[in-house]
Design a protein that fits this description.
By secondary structure, this protein is mainly alpha-helical. Helix content is about 50%, strand content about 0%. It has one domain.
Length: about 100
């Protein structure tokens, strides 16, 4: 497998659909003040829109950067994991296909 094959792999954005739906759900819950835990209207620290960092800001305390940056970073990480999964799958297909011939 050549390295440049990485650029020809179809990157399936479907890996970010469930997390995107969850982020939308959590955003609605935050806006409507649902209690995800006792006293917390957000499920995870990086989905706290009311943090000092806000949506696109940065701060020196947790969560260190805004919610939008966390969401974009997680989406990018999921796309990379999905692409790696496809590369591994293609590699396994080639190995088993050549062994069967």
């Amino acid at each position: 497998m050549r390295l440049h094959a990485l650029w020809y792999q179809p990157i399936h954005p479907w890996v970010i659909v469930p997390p995107m739906l969850y982020a939308i759900y959590a955003g609605i819950g935050y806006a409507r003040n649902w209690q995800f835990a006792e006293g917390y209207n957000y499920p995870y620290f990086f989905l706290n829109w009311g943090s000092p960092a806000g949506a696109f800001g940065f701060t020196d305390e947790l969560p260190y950067m805004g919610c939008a940056w966390w969401i974009l970073g997680l989406f990018l990480a999921l796309l990379i994991v999905g692409m790696l999964y496809l590369l591994i799958l293609d590699g396994l297909k080639k190995v088993f296909h050549t062994n069967n011939n």
